[in-house]
Structures are given as structure tokens and as C-alpha cells.
């Protein structure tokens, strides 16, 4: 994030901490991890959900979105996607989170409120401004919850539908791959939804991964891939 976005993010976090209702869902020990910024021309944006991991002690080590400053499993996952696209994670990727604060526990486990909708007004406008640094660059989302949060009403909410799921996919009769058009989501960007790294073990995603990346490579707007 540039300095202006960083200041605004810190201000949004402080306002959330002062909110009598929402503050109880924020882990007060931590600030905002920095984005991951490739050191070359940015050609792809990776969008995560939030920085919260279940192990509270592990949160202390998170300094960069998706832990991309370490050689962890998510970095390996994204590196593989980038390699098949013909780009370099270290050079060409900007990664950030939709929700920039740490929650008291992984937000999908918070049932008292609709945590994503409650926090969306604080973070969505800032995310759109942040991504404005890289106009027209396509986005990959990581995981179904973040995807569902940014879809416009009426769009399919299951990630697998964009990867051509059909009841007959095991018989070699999948549906068509799809991206999400700028008019179909709250970011106004072309989006290619991906499962989060643990879900790639599922047979459907394992079998469809290479095909979806090939589809993405062929259809990314303004790409020279």
C-alpha cells in the first residue's frame, strides 16, 4: 500500500476498535500486515480474505499478506499458478486482503453476526482505492468466503461453478470455465476465483486446476501471455 492508503487503513482500524459493537471481534494485539508487492511490473492481483489464522501465537509472525514473505505453502501455491501463467510471483504480483484487521478467531467460525457484511463498509471502499494503483489488472480471489462477499446479487456463489462443475464431471462431462466480469462484482474488476490452498486437495479442483489456469491465461484482459 502507498503511504496514503496505509494511513487510511490504520484510521479505519482505529475506528473499528472504537466501535462499541464491532470491536469485540477484533484481536487488539495486532495491526495490519503489509501487502506483498512484486518488484517488477504488476500483472496480477491476489486477494485474500483476512490475516487471521487459528493459532493465536502464529499471528505474531504475520507481517505480510498471505505470509508471502516466507517460503510457506501459500507462496508455493501461488508460485505454481504464476508459473503456468508465464509470470513471476516475485516480480508481477500484488497481494492484499479484503479485511485487513485480525479477528479474534477465523471469521468463518464467528456465528454471532454476519462478520463479513458487518466489516465490509469499513474495508471495501479502501480496497477499491488500493487496487486503483493498478488499473485494469485482473484479480484472483483465494477461497469461497471472500468470493461470496464481493459478488453482486444474483451471481453464483459456489466457487466450483466457475470451474465448470456439473454432476457428470467425473464422467468427463464438465461445464464451461468462467471468470467474473467487472459488472458482476463489487470491485469492478475481472476476477478469476481460486480455492484457498488447502482446498486444492479436493479431487475436483486437482483435476480442473490446469484447465482453469489455461482458460485464465487465454482470457485475461489486456494480457500478453
Q: In short, what is this structure?
A:
The protein is of the alpha/beta class and 225 residues long. The protein has helices at 3-18, 56-59, 73-85, 89-92, 115-131, 144-150, 159-162, 203-219, and strands spanning 36-37, 44-48, 93-97, 139-142, 191-194.
Account of the 3D structure:
With 225 residues, this protein is an alpha/beta fold. The chain has one domain: Uracil-DNA Glycosylase, subunit E (3-Layer(aba) Sandwich). It is 36% helix and 9% strand. It has eight helices and five strands; from the N terminus they run αββαααβαβααβα. A five-stranded mixed β-sheet has the order 1-3-2-4-5. α1 packs antiparallel against α5. The protein is globular and about 55 Å long. The model has no long low-confidence stretch (mean pLDDT 94).
List keywords for this structure.
single chain, 225 residues, alpha/beta, Uracil-DNA Glycosylase, subunit E, 5-stranded mixed beta sheet
**Percentage of helical residues?**
25-40%
Structural class: alpha/beta
CATH architecture: 3-Layer(aba) Sandwich
| Assigned CATH superfamily | Uracil-DNA glycosylase-like domain
Distance between the termini: 26 Å
* Mean pLDDT across every amino acid position: 94
Biggest β-sheet description = 5 strands, mixed
Main sheet: strand order: 1-3-2-4-5
Instruction: Determine the CATH topology.
Output: Uracil-DNA Glycosylase, subunit E
CATH classification class: Alpha Beta
Q: How does the overall form come out from the CA principal axes?
A: globular
The tally of strands reads 5
Q: How many separate helices?
A: 8
**Total discrete domains:** 1
C-alpha Rg, in Å?
A: 17 Å
Amino acid at each position: 500500500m502507498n503511504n496514503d492508503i496505509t494511513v487510511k487503513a490504520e484510521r479505519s482500524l482505529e475506528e473499528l476498535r472504537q466501535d462499541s459493537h464491532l470491536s469485540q471481534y477484533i484481536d487488539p494485539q495486532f495491526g495490519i500486515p503489509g501487502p506483498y508487492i512484486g518488484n517488477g511490473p504488476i500483472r496480477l492481483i491476489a486477494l485474500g480474505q483476512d490475516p487471521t489464522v487459528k493459532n493465536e501465537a502464529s499471528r505474531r509472525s504475520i507481517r505480510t499478506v498471505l505470509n508471502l514473505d516466507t517460503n510457506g505453502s501459500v507462496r508455493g501455491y501461488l508460485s505454481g499458478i504464476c508459473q503456468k501463467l508465464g509470470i513471476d510471483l516475485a516480480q508481477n504480483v500484488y497481494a492484499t486482503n479484503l479485511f485487513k484487521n485480525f479477528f479474534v478467531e477465523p471469521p468463518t467460525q464467528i456465528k454471532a453476526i454476519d462478520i463479513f457484511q458487518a466489516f465490509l463498509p469499513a474495508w471495501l471502499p479502501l480496497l477499491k482505492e488500493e487496487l486503483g494503483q493498478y488499473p485494469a489488472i485482473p484479480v484472483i480471489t483465494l477461497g469461497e468466503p471472500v468470493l461470496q462477499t464481493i459478488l453482486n446479487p444474483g451471481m453464483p456463489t459456489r466457487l466450483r461453478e466457475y470451474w465448470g462443475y456439473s454432476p457428470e464431471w467425473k464422467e468427463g462431462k464438465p461445464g464451461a470455465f468462467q471468470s467474473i466480469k467487472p459488472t458482476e462484482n463489487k470491485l469492478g474488476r475481472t476476477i478469476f476465483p481460486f480455492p484457498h490452498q488447502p482446498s486444492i486437495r479436493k479431487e475436483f479442483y486437482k483435476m480442473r486446476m490446469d484447465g482453469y489456469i489455461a482458460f485464465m491465461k487465454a482470457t485475461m484482459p489486456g494480457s500478453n501471455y
